[in-house]
Design brief:
single chain, 389 residues, alpha+beta, Aminopeptidase, Nonspecific Lipid-transfer Protein, Chain A, 3 domains, 14-stranded mixed β-sheet, 10 helices, 35% strand
Length: 389
């Protein structure tokens, strides 16, 4: 008989075995995850005859959205034993996780899909594309091109993490609508994660003032292939920071995951590679009433919406959306202005697709002439969700 439950400490060995059987991560990364992340997560497991055959991990994050910090869950480690696939185990686990999160009034959840088509049946949709800059190996820069000596860098240690969190949040809150709120524990996990992959967090100083940091890992030691996971700096330090990148990583090749508001380096490094965008994060509204109350609308705004949600039936229904962040259920017999499925609502509110895009695709249905009203909504369009686990 199949049973779904939360994993306990006694299940860790089975969960680790299933993780490696499905993902085959480098041992250093898997050990890091189970030593430093696993115990903070909730892990739903599906078992049969006391053997764990499938799992889903909920990694808790605090999310900054519209000037507030709320709880969210990052879904990772969704896996089924290869010998037991095509039995609907993934669906059972996702339904259980979503039902649990709805009961906790989690506004939305997100994930980094291995394959998009695995999650679209559960109304997940892309909300964030990562700008990636690839750079190629080159010779060391001549002395006259070396970055200004006023910048020096040091390796981050635990004593730096509180300062680092304050630095990052201050910049991100000024520039973004949505991001994973940083704190000391967030950067401790990032520090340990980069170390598990042969990297570090490099702090950049102008004399004694912190002006930026670079968190990176080594993707391929033989080819000196780097992944700069996060590069953040004060706006006025942009030119010097990119000169430092040129010098510090100048003889290597790799990729930089660019912060949305600092996408154009304008330095030599951009002339020896290519830049492209890749959709990486899918999300789903979990509790529609809770989520929509984070989204501000202008004065004298009123719209009646029918939300279609086949999986979380508590969301399925008609609502009125008014000024003052009011989003409330109305009578099912009431006439509405627009009908939209929950995945369309997610995509629109996160600024990934416009109302017009959704209309052309037949996703959204208008019952009144309300298009101008919808255009008045200030959707979220500045997002950073670049976490891996």
């Amino acid at each position: 008989m199949i049973n779904i439950r939360l994993a306990t400490k006694d299940d860790e060995e089975q969960v680790y075995t299933l993780w490696q059987k499905c993902f085959r991560d480098p041992e250093s990364f898997a050990d890091y995850y189970f030593a430093h992340i696993y115990s903070y997560n909730r892990v739903f497991v599906l078992e049969e005859k006391k053997t764990i055959l499938a799992m889903l991990h909920l990694n808790p994050y605090r999310i900054f959205i519209d000037g507030q910090v709320t709880e969210s869950e990052y879904i990772v480690g969704v896996a089924t034993d290869p010998d037991c696939r095509r039995r609907g185990f993934m669906r059972k686990l996702i339904e259980k996780a979503l039902d649990t999160m709805w009961g906790e009034e989690i506004p939305f959840t997100y994930l980094m899909p291995a394959k998009e088509e695995l999650y679209t049946p559960f109304q997940f949709t892309f909300i964030y594309s990562q700008r990636i800059l690839e750079f190629k190996k080159k010779r060391t820069l001549p002395d006259e091109d070396v970055y200004p000596l006023q910048i020096h860098s040091t390796q981050a240690v635990t004593a730096n993490l509180a300062e680092l969190a304050d630095f990052a949040n201050t910049i991100l809150m000024q520039q973004l609508d949505v991001f994973a709120y940083r704190d000391k524990d967030y950067f401790l996990r990032l520090l340990l994660e980069t170390k598990s992959e042969g990297g570090e967090i490099r702090l950049l100083y102008h004399y004694k003032k912190l002006i930026g940091y670079a968190a990176y890992a080594v993707e391929d030691e033989k080819r000196q292939q780097l992944l700069i996971r996060e590069l953040l700096y004060l706006p006025e330090a942009k030119a010097d920071v990119w000169k430092w990148i040129e010098q510090y990583f100048g003889i290597k090749r790799g990729r930089i995951l660019l912060i949305p508001f600092s996408e154009e380096p304008g330095m030599q490094i951009s002339n020896r590679g290519r830049s492209y965008k890749k959709p990486i994060i899918m999300a789903r509204i979990v509790h529609v009433e809770k989520f929509m109350k984070f989204i501000p609308v202008p004065e004298n705004f009123s719209l009646r919406i029918c939300v279609i949600d086949p999986l979380i039936r508590q969301n399925h229904g008609k609502y009125v959306w008014r000024s003052g962040k009011r989003f409330e259920p109305i009578d099912e017999r009431a006439q509405v202005d627009v009908t939209i499925p929950v995945e369309g609502l997610t995509s629109w509110i996160f600024g990934y697709q416009s109302v017009e895009d959704l209309r052309k695709k037949g996703v959204i249905c208008f019952h009144t002439k309300c298009q101008d009203q919808l255009k008045r909504v200030a959707v979220i369009n500045k997002i950073l969700l670049n976490e891996i686990v």
